[in-house]
Amino acid sequence: MSCKCHSPEKEKEIPLCVICDAKLFGRSDKRFCTTKCKNKYHAELRKNNRSVSRETLKVLFKNYQVLNSLLAENCSRYRVSKLLLQRKGFDFETVTGIEYNKNGLKLKVFNFFWYPGKNSVIVVGQNPDESPASPFVYKRLKRFGPEEIAA
Predict the structure, then answer these.
(1) What is the number of other CB atoms lying within 10 angstroms of the CB of residue 114?
(2) Containing domain of residue 26, as a range?
(3) Is residue 65 part of a domain?
(4) pTM over 0.85
(5) 1 falls within a domain
(6) Helix 135-144 and helix 35-70: axis angle, to 10°?
(7) Cβ–Cβ < 8 Å for 55, 91
(8) What is the pLDDT of residues 4-49, one digit of tens each?
Protein backbone atom coordinates (compact mmCIF):
# COMPACT_ATOMS: atom_id res chain seq x y z
CA MET A 1 0.00 0.00 0.00
CA SER A 2 1.37 3.39 -0.92
CA CYS A 3 0.75 6.64 0.86
CA LYS A 4 -0.72 9.68 -0.87
CA CYS A 5 2.32 11.88 -0.23
CA HIS A 6 4.56 9.65 -2.44
CA SER A 7 2.09 8.94 -5.22
CA PRO A 8 3.35 9.10 -8.82
CA GLU A 9 1.12 12.12 -9.51
CA LYS A 10 3.03 14.15 -6.90
CA GLU A 11 6.45 13.50 -8.48
CA LYS A 12 7.79 16.29 -10.66
CA GLU A 13 8.57 15.59 -14.26
CA ILE A 14 12.31 15.61 -14.78
CA PRO A 15 13.19 17.96 -17.66
CA LEU A 16 15.14 16.57 -20.60
CA CYS A 17 17.94 18.02 -22.70
CA VAL A 18 16.66 19.68 -25.90
CA ILE A 19 19.28 17.88 -28.00
CA CYS A 20 19.94 14.43 -26.56
CA ASP A 21 16.99 13.89 -24.17
CA ALA A 22 19.29 13.30 -21.19
CA LYS A 23 17.79 14.08 -17.78
CA LEU A 24 18.60 17.56 -16.51
CA PHE A 25 19.54 18.33 -12.93
CA GLY A 26 20.26 21.69 -11.36
CA ARG A 27 18.55 24.95 -12.22
CA SER A 28 14.87 24.76 -13.08
CA ASP A 29 15.36 26.70 -16.34
CA LYS A 30 18.22 24.52 -17.61
CA ARG A 31 17.75 23.37 -21.24
CA PHE A 32 20.97 21.51 -22.09
CA CYS A 33 22.91 18.80 -20.31
CA THR A 34 26.36 19.90 -21.55
CA THR A 35 28.00 22.77 -23.39
CA LYS A 36 28.41 20.40 -26.34
CA CYS A 37 24.61 20.07 -26.64
CA LYS A 38 24.17 23.83 -26.19
CA ASN A 39 26.72 24.58 -28.92
CA LYS A 40 25.12 22.04 -31.26
CA TYR A 41 21.69 23.66 -30.74
CA HIS A 42 22.94 27.19 -31.44
CA ALA A 43 25.00 26.08 -34.46
CA GLU A 44 21.85 24.57 -35.96
CA LEU A 45 19.94 27.80 -35.31
CA ARG A 46 22.65 29.85 -37.08
CA LYS A 47 22.66 27.43 -40.01
CA ASN A 48 18.88 27.68 -40.41
CA ASN A 49 18.95 31.48 -40.15
CA ARG A 50 21.69 31.73 -42.80
CA SER A 51 19.69 29.48 -45.09
CA VAL A 52 16.52 31.58 -44.73
CA SER A 53 18.49 34.80 -45.17
CA ARG A 54 20.19 33.51 -48.30
CA GLU A 55 16.88 32.45 -49.87
CA THR A 56 15.21 35.78 -49.06
CA LEU A 57 18.18 37.67 -50.45
CA LYS A 58 18.01 35.65 -53.68
CA VAL A 59 14.34 36.58 -54.13
CA LEU A 60 15.00 40.26 -53.38
CA PHE A 61 17.91 40.33 -55.82
CA LYS A 62 15.74 38.68 -58.50
CA ASN A 63 12.96 41.23 -57.91
CA TYR A 64 15.48 44.06 -58.16
CA GLN A 65 16.87 42.66 -61.42
CA VAL A 66 13.38 42.32 -62.95
CA LEU A 67 12.40 45.89 -62.07
CA ASN A 68 15.76 47.25 -63.22
CA SER A 69 15.59 45.39 -66.55
CA LEU A 70 12.24 47.03 -67.38
CA LEU A 71 13.45 50.53 -66.54
CA ALA A 72 13.96 52.75 -69.58
CA GLU A 73 16.77 55.28 -69.60
CA ASN A 74 15.89 58.66 -68.02
CA CYS A 75 12.59 57.22 -66.81
CA SER A 76 11.66 57.21 -63.14
CA ARG A 77 8.16 55.70 -63.47
CA TYR A 78 6.49 53.21 -65.80
CA ARG A 79 3.48 50.89 -66.06
CA VAL A 80 3.76 47.16 -66.62
CA SER A 81 1.28 44.31 -66.57
CA LYS A 82 1.21 42.10 -63.52
CA LEU A 83 1.35 39.06 -65.81
CA LEU A 84 4.64 40.20 -67.36
CA LEU A 85 6.22 40.61 -63.94
CA GLN A 86 5.01 37.16 -62.91
CA ARG A 87 6.43 35.61 -66.11
CA LYS A 88 9.80 37.19 -65.38
CA GLY A 89 9.77 35.57 -61.93
CA PHE A 90 8.87 38.60 -59.82
CA ASP A 91 7.73 37.69 -56.28
CA PHE A 92 5.13 40.18 -55.06
CA GLU A 93 5.36 38.88 -51.47
CA THR A 94 9.04 39.69 -50.85
CA VAL A 95 9.72 43.37 -50.22
CA THR A 96 12.13 45.63 -48.36
CA GLY A 97 9.53 48.18 -47.30
CA ILE A 98 5.85 49.07 -47.19
CA GLU A 99 4.30 52.55 -47.22
CA TYR A 100 0.84 53.98 -47.59
CA ASN A 101 0.36 56.90 -49.97
CA LYS A 102 -2.49 58.58 -51.83
CA ASN A 103 -2.71 55.56 -54.18
CA GLY A 104 -2.93 53.10 -51.29
CA LEU A 105 -0.31 50.50 -50.53
CA LYS A 106 3.16 51.21 -51.92
CA LEU A 107 5.66 48.32 -51.79
CA LYS A 108 9.44 48.65 -52.12
CA VAL A 109 12.46 46.70 -53.27
CA PHE A 110 15.42 48.91 -52.33
CA ASN A 111 15.13 52.08 -54.47
CA PHE A 112 12.21 50.74 -56.57
CA PHE A 113 8.57 50.95 -55.53
CA TRP A 114 5.34 49.65 -57.03
CA TYR A 115 1.63 49.77 -56.44
CA PRO A 116 -1.36 48.26 -58.23
CA GLY A 117 -3.01 50.37 -60.90
CA LYS A 118 -6.20 49.66 -62.84
CA ASN A 119 -6.83 46.50 -64.92
CA SER A 120 -3.93 44.37 -63.56
CA VAL A 121 -1.39 47.08 -64.30
CA ILE A 122 1.43 47.69 -61.86
CA VAL A 123 2.89 51.17 -61.58
CA VAL A 124 6.63 50.92 -60.96
CA GLY A 125 8.88 53.78 -60.02
CA GLN A 126 12.39 54.49 -58.92
CA ASN A 127 13.24 56.84 -56.11
CA PRO A 128 16.53 58.58 -57.04
CA ASP A 129 17.04 59.77 -53.45
CA GLU A 130 17.39 56.23 -52.12
CA SER A 131 20.41 54.00 -52.62
CA PRO A 132 19.87 50.99 -54.90
CA ALA A 133 20.49 48.50 -52.10
CA SER A 134 21.57 48.52 -48.50
CA PRO A 135 25.22 47.90 -47.53
CA PHE A 136 24.06 44.56 -46.12
CA VAL A 137 23.07 43.35 -49.59
CA TYR A 138 26.35 44.42 -51.10
CA LYS A 139 28.21 42.64 -48.34
CA ARG A 140 26.22 39.45 -49.04
CA LEU A 141 26.75 39.79 -52.78
CA LYS A 142 30.46 40.15 -52.24
CA ARG A 143 30.52 37.12 -49.95
CA PHE A 144 28.41 34.74 -52.05
CA GLY A 145 28.79 36.20 -55.53
CA PRO A 146 25.98 37.33 -57.82
CA GLU A 147 25.76 33.98 -59.58
CA GLU A 148 24.86 32.15 -56.38
CA ILE A 149 22.33 34.77 -55.26
CA ALA A 150 20.65 35.03 -58.68
CA ALA A 151 20.49 31.23 -59.08
Answers:
(1) 24
(2) 13-150
(3) yes
(4) no
(5) no
(6) 100
(7) no
(8) 555 555 456 889 999 999 999 998 899 999 999 999 999 888 888 7
